[in-house]
Every structure is written in structure tokens, then in C-alpha cells.
């Protein structure tokens, strides 16, 4: 039925907004919707073909009505597709800002899934390797990341991607969750080994907290 | 000393430039975060603030090299202050970018809004819109019939380009001793907003007053 797929896609988009991660790209639905739009467009031109450009809506209300309905359906599909893609691209941008490497995470997830399924059903291991990003989205993330890096470069002093929480204390207590090796601070080098605890300057370790190496203790 | 004495001393002319800059930065930041639309880029203020951040950073670097324990206390105060300045600037820039990203096409095509951007923000907005458009184009728009490919379509009764909601309610505080007259469309009766008084009004009604600095958002 007209517009059914659009509704489905918008529901996907709605659900994506509430999720922390990005669900797989609905390649099938997107493809079916573009096909629907093309078919509808073909219907419209077929319907209008006999009139050879001199179509008068007033004299043929029935044809005019179906042409209108087809047009509205196409527009609706377009809006649904735009909404879906916009929600996803916003999500990807957010990930770029928070400093997580989207493409890296993707690959790790793929690796994990691939291993799990590979042992269970070796023949279908290939299916588990599918990324939840479409190739177009991967390209978009790459371009957005480049642009963000160049914009950020103009504001090195204030660290644009830094924390948006108002700073309270200069120094904080952190616990090391994963070995992170040695880091250099103004007060000398610190070796971050798992389960140890430090009192360090927030600015020095912010990145490591975001990446999950350290945990901030309150 | 009584609180009133302190307040009495607070007079614009006696306050040094640095303190006034901080107040102005804070006010700009709060205004920008509360206003539904983009506010003018405070070019001069930002130049001064960034210059001071640079100075502080190099000062702190100089002081750090001398390992005198007595100076480390002042150093902590300096660093805390620096972190706060950085936070204000960062948050201001991010708030602006969030608005630019929310209405990219409106920002770029609506001439008065476009004039409010800083050069680097303009570059960011242009590049972002371009890659977003290319992404949509590659994902599905490219396969659409010719007439439906545009991103800024306003035919069919619906304009695709969204702008900010200028009728959003905002909290405003008067800043002028003599008061500011608030009136116009959407306000039942003109009224005088005295200094320190707080009211809730539509943003469209007070945008000019806020722009002149006679009132501030909270």
C-alpha cells in the first residue's frame, strides 16, 4: 500500500533517537521506497501522456485526483526518507563530536559479531560482518570528521570538543579501568596501570575518560 | 561592608575592561543559549577573550617551569580561572553551532541570519550543508525523478526549509534603570520592564531590546 514503507522507516527513525547506538541501516526499505517513488512517477507520466501537455484538471477530475494522490505520496516518501537519514546523520555527528571513532567502533563490533557467529555457524559468518552503516554514511562520517578537525583546529586553545559540564575542580580523582600506558603531564609522567587510583588535573585526562580508560570518582 | 555597599561600587565605568569582558561573555553565553535564533557574532569581544586566554596559557607555562612550591597555589587559581574561561567560550561556540546545524539551509539562505555568522562558522555551515546534501544525494535523492531531487523545495504547499521558532517563550530581565518599554504584536498591553524585573514573553517581542543590551535573557 502507498506510504506503508514510509511509516515503517519513520518508526525506525523514532526508535533510533532513543537508542545509544546506531541500529543497522534499512537498505531494503530505502531501496523499496525509491522504487515506489519511481513507479509512481512513471504512473503519473503514463496517465498524462495521452493529453500531450494540454491536461485540464477541471474537465477530468478523476485523473486529476489520482495524479494528485500520486504526487502527494512521492512527496511523503521523500520527507520520510529525509527524516530517517537526518536522524541517522545527526547521530553520527554526535558521535564525531564526542570523540569516538565511529568507523573504529563499527569494525570492532563487526569483529566481535563475526567471531561469535563464525564458531557457531561457519557458513553464515559472512552475514554477521555487515556494518550498521551504509557505505554512503561511512563516507559522510569521514567527510564530517575531516571538516570537524579543520574547524576545531582554529580553536586549539579552548579545546572545542572538551567537556560541556561546567568545570568545578581543577584536580579530580580517577581510577584506571584499563592499562593506558604512560602519559605526560605538567607534573611529570604518570604510568596508568589497571586498578590504580590518581589525583590528576582534569584537563590532562579528559580524553582518556571519554575513551573509557579512566573512571572519574566523585 | 554591607551587600548594598558592594552593589553600589559596581558601576560600569569603574570596572576594569577584563571584568567587563567576563560579564559580557557570560551575558552573551546565557543569551545565546536561551534565544531560539542565532545572535550576532561578538567579534571584538571574542578577539579580546581569546587573546587573554592565550596570554594566560603562556603565563601558566612560564610559571610552571619554575618549581617554586609557593607559586603553585597562585598557579592553581590561574588554571581554574582559565578552565572556566575556556568552558564559557567553548559552550558559547557549541551553542551557536547547534543552532547552525539545526537549520542549515535557513541559516545560509536567509541573508540577515547569514550575516550573523563569523567567517569560520560560515565556512563550517557551507561545508556541512554541502556534504550533507551529497550524502542524501548518494543515498536516495539521486534516484528520484528529476523534479523531486531538490532540498529546498517549497512547492506542494510545504516549505522544506525550516527556520527557528521566533515565537518561543523566553525569560527576560530588564537591565536599564529607567526601564524598557515592551510592546508589539503578541503583547496585550505595552508595559515597562524595570531594572531587575523578570518577565516571560515571546522572543520575537524582545529580540531588539535584547540586541541593544537593554535586557538580558536568563
Automatic annotation (TrEMBL), chain A:
Residues 118-128 have a biased composition (Low complexity). It holds the Pfam family PSF1_C. It is found in: Nucleus. The keyword Transmembrane does not apply. InterPro entries: GINS_A, GINS_bundle-like_dom_sf, GINS_Psf1, PSF1_C. Residues 60-155 form the GINS subunit domain. Its main location: nucleus. GO terms for biological process: DNA strand elongation involved in mitotic DNA replication. Residues 169-217 form the DNA replication complex GINS protein PSF1 C-terminal domain. The keyword Nucleus applies. GO terms for cellular component: GINS complex. Component of the GINS complex. The GINS complex plays an essential role in the initiation of DNA replication. Required for correct functioning of the GINS complex, a complex that plays an essential role in the initiation of DNA replication, and progression of DNA replication forks. GINS complex seems to bind preferentially to single-stranded DNA. This is DNA replication complex GINS protein PSF1. It comes from Cladonia borealis.
UniProtKB/TrEMBL annotation, chain B:
Residues 164-218 form the DNA replication complex GINS protein SLD5 C-terminal domain. This is DNA replication complex GINS protein SLD5. Keywords: DNA replication, Nucleus. GO terms for cellular component: GINS complex. InterPro entries: GINS_A, GINS_bundle-like_dom_sf, GINS_Sld5, SLD5_C, Sld5_GINS_A. Gene3D superfamilies: 1.20.58.1030. It is found in: Nucleus. It comes from the Eukaryota. GO terms for biological process: DNA-templated DNA replication; double-strand break repair via break-induced replication. The keyword Nucleus applies. The GINS complex plays an essential role in the initiation of DNA replication. Residues 59-139 form the GINS subunit domain. It holds the Pfam family Sld5. Belongs to the GINS4/SLD5 family. PANTHER family: DNA REPLICATION COMPLEX GINS PROTEIN SLD5, SLD5 PROTEIN.
